[in-house]
Specification:
By secondary structure, the chain is of the alpha/beta class. The protein is about 40% helix and about 15% strand. The longest helix has 14 residues.
Length: about 160
């Protein structure tokens, strides 16, 4: 778990297990397994697409995303990423936030990168490649899967705006 911005930590499932139950935390579970599955209680391959929390489940102190580390960018819904960014922005002043996926290498750090890009000046003035290099100096385990890397590339300009 690495603090990439004051009160914003990025990590993996192990980090969430270590901090679970500790006061002052807001968790963003950027992974379908096991968090989204447990929150909705489905047993099959996926939750019903008709379920009102099919993409995003909100619970006290947690945002739970139905986000898989897909190789195809078409399986990365912008609404999920945007909800995570809004939740970080709304909670960062009152809580320590742990943004995590299973291994802490792809989904959660990509969302963390986009948060820094949109809501801070840490990466301002840098082109995309330089910003990603700068982010890797902040968060060395960053190793996005093809879908998350492509999502960031395609949507870069959309997030590259001041809050």
């Amino acid at each position: 778990m690495i603090e990439i911005e004051r009160n914003l930590f990025v990590g993996g499932e192990f980090d969430e297990q270590q901090e679970r139950g500790q006061p002052g935390w807001f968790f963003i579970h950027a992974c379908k397994e096991p968090y989204h599955r447990q929150a909705l209680g489905y047993a099959g391959r996926a939750a019903s697409k008709d379920h009102p929390e099919y993409l995003i489940a909100r619970r006290e102190g947690r945002l739970i995303l139905n986000l898989v580390d897909a190789a195809d960018v078409n399986y990365i819904p912008a609404g999920i990423v945007d909800a995570a960014l809004v939740a970080i922005h709304e909670n960062i002043g009152d809580h320590r936030i742990l943004l995590h996926c299973n291994q802490g290498q792809s989904r959660s750090p990509t969302i963390g990168l986009l948060y820094l890009l949109k809501f801070t000046d840490r990466l301002s003035g840098l082109d995309r490649d330089a910003a990603i290099d700068a982010f890797r100096s902040i968060y060395p385990p960053y190793n996005p899967a093809r879908g998350m890397a492509e999502y960031a590339r395609i949507n870069w300009d959309r997030y590259c705006q001041a809050a």
